[in-house]
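hi! just following up on the protien thing from before. the input was this:
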Amino acid sequence: MYVVTPRNRWQLAGHVANQYRTHFPTAPAPPTDNPSRWPRLQRLMRQLDLAKRHGYQAAARRCREELRECLTLWQQDTRTTVPVEPGGPTVRDICLELQALAAEFGEVQYEPDRQQLSVVTEPIELEGVYLGEFRIVLQVSGGEQFPAYEIEPLEPNWASSATEVSHPHVSRGYLCEGEGKQALQQARRSGRLSDFFLIVQRILTTYNPESAYVPLEEWHGTPCEDCGETIEESELCRCRYSDRLLCDGCSGICEECEGMFAHEYLSACAECDELFCPDCLKGGICTYCHENQEEEIHHETPETLPIPAATAATSPA
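and the predicted 3d structure came back as:
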């Protein structure tokens, strides 16, 4: 893997453009109802590059805001199908895309053996949950193969209830694209690399609870398997009979064996009214109460015991 620099950018652009000619021979030009939108995107990316190089932070911030606004309008345009002319990106087009990527993400890397282009996002935090940086890896060869790209967490903060989920919208490296799916496909097919990575980054920095693999409110907890309430896993107990993870409200303790059980496995002793599991409750009475009854019988005196009828008849008056 190596970093894409101005010195090797043209060579890599030639390779990528050749991949597009091979795998996307009829790749469409960027579809939009507004033909001026694509040049505006390119112009904004060049302005952002200049602002970053000269350290003009306010100008760079303004360019980013305009880029996001223009990208939003672009996505709205691409939701409708419009006639496009066939054609693929040129070496110059790809070179400009790589330059725009470097301006936005700071560093672009290429893995020649796997033919993968990648960038790293800034640390992402959604609704108070820190998720860290993510590497977006695009496969520049292979045509319409699936998956065309993957998301790698660099500082994984896995969801407590699903260790394959590194982001509310990323599971096993696959991104839930939602409404951005068509825009991503078109950006990739037409060679608009900067658009592609920016759209992915925008999805990663946006939270939609309705399409989340794991909601953020459940990120640091585990749901009770009875009531569904999410709490810290250390505060859950496992039922000895059903093996379910339960919260305090859905479980109880057997007074004898001190095991944790779901409420349906606990019954009250008929004598003391304490809760016991089936193994510790015989005939509706717990072991303690059985022993107490036997001890009371054992300590009864002869005067208190009933006199047999035969003995009573022979007793002196």
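Residues 2-211 form one domain.
The radius of gyration is 35 Å.
cheers
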